[in-house]
């Protein structure tokens, strides 16, 4: 059992600190409608009204409650990072509101309590009742895990008990599931923490029932005479309800929903030892990673369904790439690792974390991207209405504010992603300076990790505690690393990388010191030629970090820049740049705008001048003077 | 005076024949709801109902009447091409319906007569009453010019008289103008044919009033309490009503409306000898041509407003490039030529005609593009909802069927675009095998033109008739022609090209033969570096024709093709290809899809194999097996 992990240095720790110290107070203010210039949330006040503590009308969307739940979950994880009495007061105050807002029968949802009291459970397809319950349950589990305080979990147990009287396989119950998945994962968490069978049963039911014929969502829609809560009816694939989950082969529909489902499926596959579900998870993983994922780890190629389209359709400027979808991919990858320790899951997880989750929040923690395109021309976002869904700068808040609190709960729980314990040993997945207390069958050890990750990848592990038997620790060697050296107590050890991990199996002793020195080089990456949008272009990566060119460094019109693959690139840590990042510099060219007119004869050879090109981590873009940004650069032949 | 021109061979004649023989009967059937599989138009039936000849409800859009008007205008021009008794019967039958549908006071518009009788003239901003009147008047003028039958023009004169009792500068009248321009141009036509001052007055008023403060559209909207006929309120620039027209400097808003306005402005500038309006026309022309026009001559960079966005924003796959906007540009260019005979106007006119108008109709004349993107990946149009406005194949008809009848009226009137007579002589603008009868101050001549334009540009002009004094004929030498030879009666003559024209000033005699042999070469054209979408790419043109690569010739994934600028290109006329076109063949490369995965290390040099690349005229694309299409090809360094 991993008793505790604490990040204590480096980039992830810095981001976590921003989340704990800036995002959480900011978001609490936002949920309480106290952020000037931001769209009012109404979220906390809705619960106050439902609890009889305030007057007024419900404000916000049908899933507004989930914003509070995500904040509470983040606050729970933040307690592991740094205790804060006032934040803890916020949580206990909210739990009291939940207790009062909860109906006699266990129902808890301010939209239906305040706004449509007669319409509970009539629109599972669209109205997020199970989604809200899922986030509330996940938060309750996190709070219980961190503090041992059961009060929130008790509220949610009553809520789940109620749900199970309404939904389930038995005659007279709704044979349904939620249009926006998340309860599946939450039930897995609750089951693993409490051991209570009902959570496992509900998780299993929701997954197995999904997409069966006759289709529940279609029948439900018919029983509502086709009426939609939203402006249009989405196809079943949007909800991953077009087929039973074991028959789904392509990552389809709304990207956040899809990955939340897949993560829940992976939980269920592991908990239930379900081979057919494991196979489905692997198939969907391959579709997603091999055909439908941006190089940043972002997901979603269309604004309209906020999701997947078809293989190799990865437009850059109109990428949707919702921050929440990247968070969902981190969840999915983490569950796949639990199911099967393949390094690839860790590779994708860190790609998504560094380059699709972290871009979602500003350096200061108070502005957010909902959509993360890989190419931004701010004037086009502003003046071409086809791109009106893209904000070229991070925003203080959103009417649909799913991303900021989702970011907060992931960043506050990053300590959970460093190590993974399985029967065969401990796995080091994400790297970062930290301390960890781990109970092994052979005794307790603590691990002090030091290193400059992700700017360098020489990670030093110092051990305390002795094991009475050999115990295996597996260290992930990312696929980007072509060469590594392992040194144990001053002696080079030859470790073979197997499925993405090197293994040390030994009786650990206080004073053991292991150094894994992974050579980090700048890589020029191309996309499969089937990706039309990236033809003739390269992305530059270093270690787990995807880089981009910004106008702030390179002037306007980044499309005029070209770079030669393999050109010498200098990597330099700049402590005053963007909160401290490694920036890259290379020599490239800038095509000349030799035309006064719009079109003209093309010269035989492109006229261009040498120019330095500076690249910064994509996650840090948009923190300086607003301007253009490109991940994919035109390559020279 | 140009008495008559008849196209009698070559591409334009073929397209005109398709329009006359196929499109017109097809469109008459469509307007009468007799095309299977096409959305019903209701257009003719609306007039029948309004005339008391049928029962039922108005079908279609608020401007549905204009489809009939455009058909009638096309039918009028078609009479110049080839008399057809049954088509003529259609027209006279429609004129009788108009007479019966017209109200006592001269009002004529089936939407308001049938559907909203009390709401006439309450929504000039959005509801197209003046637009419908404009198309009706333009058709009436064309019918009168061609046949001498005044009955339709009489209907429209009563209609205009009525409009002038409602709208105008006098107290008590609406000080307004139409949200969709076209009446301006129509009034100019009516004025020039009838000499009646009222048409000139209305034209001038509509143009001068537009965009003045306080803004009429805003006031009208307020008086309707902000209610919109459509799903949203467009900004004033959408209607070119954000500033007085003489203060407008950028081509803005809905592209069809914009060019209809500019064409009307150019008419008014010429008719009224208005220098400030001429200056405005030239400024807007420069904005449009130097900053906001696709290489095909297409206009409109966004689906949302169907129009202009900002300088150099010319995305290819989500180009709007409405067929009607290119038609509008032809009108604008023609009016600019009348205002000032600069070859550039002819160059743009022929670019737009060949590569932005002609693509709108299939080889058979029965399927149409509304939107003409420069890059099409059919799977993306089908599966990525952000591109749902793009049809990857021509459609049989449209709910908003503005483009097909607009195409018909332009194609049936192409004879009007070959020559232009001005005080200083006759100008040959568009080339094509034809005969023309021209009355000059020095006597009547007829010109028989022969040549393979646009596949070759050796045009032979044979003259009949003698002039009693020297008379100038100007022949346009397009900017794409770098070298030409002029031979008069067997003798080479040294003619200097001045502002796009060479001039022959002589006493013409029967038997005169002039050969203008313009060397036509394949050109590789690049866009200004500020056009992000075309960076690293070239378009291939030959003469006035823009070429494209199609999947039918080059296999799937055109983005993997690269071509070297200046590479040898073979041009060959293929009489069985796409109705007879010159196709181009060159050697290029295809990048290999060496990756099984989505992303991988980029090799230092692009791995590619030699491949022949075949290009066909862009206007002819989409007439074979559906597939990808690209105008802009990746260039090799």
Structure description:
2 copies of one chain form a homodimer. In chain A, a hairpin with a 6-residue loop joins strand 17 and strand 18. Helix content of chain A is 35%, strand content 19%. In chain A, helix 8 (183-194) packs parallel to helix 11 and helix 9 (197-209) packs across helix 11. In chain A, the strands form 3 sheets. A 7-stranded antiparallel sheet of chain A has the order 1-5-6-7-12-9-10. Chain A has a 6-stranded mixed beta barrel with strand order 14-15-20-18-16-22. Chain A has a 4-stranded mixed sheet with strand order 3-4-8-11, with no helix packed on it. The longest helix of chain A has 22 residues, at 10-31. The first copy, chain A, is an alpha+beta fold. The model of chain A has no long low-confidence stretch (mean pLDDT 96). The first copy, chain A, has 17 helices and 22 strands. The first copy, chain A, has helices spanning 10-31, 43-50, 65-81, 85-101, 110-115, 129-147, 151-166, 183-194, 197-209, 216-223, 255-272, 275-291, 323-339, 343-357, 378-383, 403-412, 551-554, and strands at residues 2-7, 375-376, 419-422, 425-428, 434-440, 443-450, 458-464, 471-476, 484-488, 491-493, 501-506, 513-518, 522-527, 537-542, 545-550, 561-564, 569-574, 581-591, 599-601, 608-617, 629-630, 633-636. Among the domains of chain A are: 421-518, Golgi alpha-mannosidase II (Immunoglobulin-like, Sandwich); 522-636, no CATH class.
